[in-house]
Amino acid sequence: MATRSIYLLKQIRLQYYEFCVWAVVFSLPSHSPLSVSSLYSLLLAPSPSFPLFQLFAVVGFRLGSYEDGEFTVVSPEHCAHIPERVKQLGQAFQEFFATSPLAPYRASDESGYWRQVAVRCYTTGESMAVVMIHPQSLSQEELGQEKGRLVDFFTTGPGSANPPNSLYLHPFSRKTKDHTVDMEHLLGEKNVHEEVLGMKFRISPDAFFQTNTPATELLYRQVRDLCRHGNRSSESSPSLSSDVASSRPAIYDICCGTGTIGLYLSKVLCARRCVGVEMNQQAVEDARANAQLNGIEDVEFVCGRAEDVLQGQLEEEEESGGPGEVIGVVDPPRAGLHPRVVQCIRRNPHIQKLIYVSCNPEGHQTLGNFVDLCRRPSLRVKGTPFTPVVAVPVDLFPHTPHCELVVLFQRTTTASTHTQSSAPPPGDESLVTESSAPPPGDESLVTESSAPPPG
């Protein structure tokens, strides 16, 4: 019954996504020639009970919110989407914390020490655990003793039968600004690996990586197909269309993380060049290592803010004047793209196609990105606008109400920028594959789950 309720909730949220796309179209000037060709129905994960691979817990999951002042921690034992390996490690850490002289951390008054454990498990069988601790007034000697107890627990103690492949300790305080500066490797390998679509990727403790590998493969195939022609993913689709093969594209992977999307697209689209931009230095190092792991050349990963890096890279692209199209792919965090990044994309005429992968489609910043990509030129917004062509929701997070939304934006032709809008009024069912869009302001459609938001 609960699974059915979650499915229905996702269908309702799809209606809201549809409304979001319409909101983009109808917030624009009346003469802007924008219309939505199609909103596809939900692409389900390969298995409705497939697990998420990341656990944030002390001995279980936190429910509720710090903001509301009401939260608790519950066991993940009965969670269908959590793999047994994660549950086993959770139980092991529970045994360790029960024997520790240090109390669990309490956010309400910032007392205690052990805050949370982040556990990652992958289809390769490898696992990583990052234990977060608030040192409070512990001396270095006292902290060292507790680190020694943790290592002993997983080497010679009760946890030695099933230790994580990689174990880190992460000291934390609210005054800490760089959350990676004090991360200390305690046990096992420094990195773990995952395989996605026949490619191998290195993952560091602070680098972002999608939590559900089979669903991630579905997502990446969809991005691939949108890069080609905007056709929906299918197993029967051709391996490479002739027009793409004859004119190798350049790929700009913005917010690239460990480089997974850019490297995959570079391989399957035979890209002449791939540039990834990411703020996390460790993720950039992982991306460079992943390029070597997979034997992919003609790729460059740059650490920095996208709004600072992207313009210079696009100027190099313009100077090179290479044949073929330039495709932008953005996969930003929940906060969306910085407005200056959107302006940079708008101003560069070489980017004719943009694929936007959003983990927070209903977010105000995301909708703001959509509007700024598509609105007509003005003193603030320069460059030829884009048109939203296809929107595809992907069920990346089974047993939760969250969905990824992949939107294909195509650069509007100059000739059409002065024509009357062809977008029909809301409710025209010729453009809708699901039920019609809900009315603006229906807050019941955007209720957030108590589960922690996907990465």
TrEMBL record:
Q: Which GO terms describe its molecular function?
A: RNA binding; tRNA (uracil(54)-C5)-methyltransferase activity, S-adenosyl methionine-dependent
InterPro entries, per the entry: SAM-dependent_MTases_sf, TRM2_met, U5_MeTrfase_fam
Question: Can you cite a GO biological process for this protein?
Answer: RNA processing
Key words, A-Z? Methyltransferase, S-adenosyl-L-methionine, Transferase
Question: If you read the UniProt record, what top EC class would you report for this enzyme, in one word?
Answer: transferase
Question: What's the domain of life for this entry?
Answer: Eukaryota
What residues make up the catalytic site? C359 (nucleophile)
E.C. numbers: 2.1.1.35
Q: Where is the composition biased (Polar residues)?
A: 446-455
Chain spans, region Disordered: 416-455
The reactions it catalyses are: uridine(54) in tRNA + S-adenosyl-L-methionine = 5-methyluridine(54) in tRNA + S-adenosyl-L-homocysteine + H(+)
**Residues that bind S-adenosyl-L-methionine:** Q210, E278, D331
Q: Which family does it belong to?
A: Belongs to the class I-like SAM-binding methyltransferase superfamily. RNA M5U methyltransferase family.
Identification of the protein by name: tRNA (uracil(54)-C(5))-methyltransferase
**Which source organism does the UniProt entry give?**
Geodia barretti (Barrett's horny sponge)
The major lineage groups are: Eukaryota, Metazoa, Porifera, Demospongiae, Heteroscleromorpha
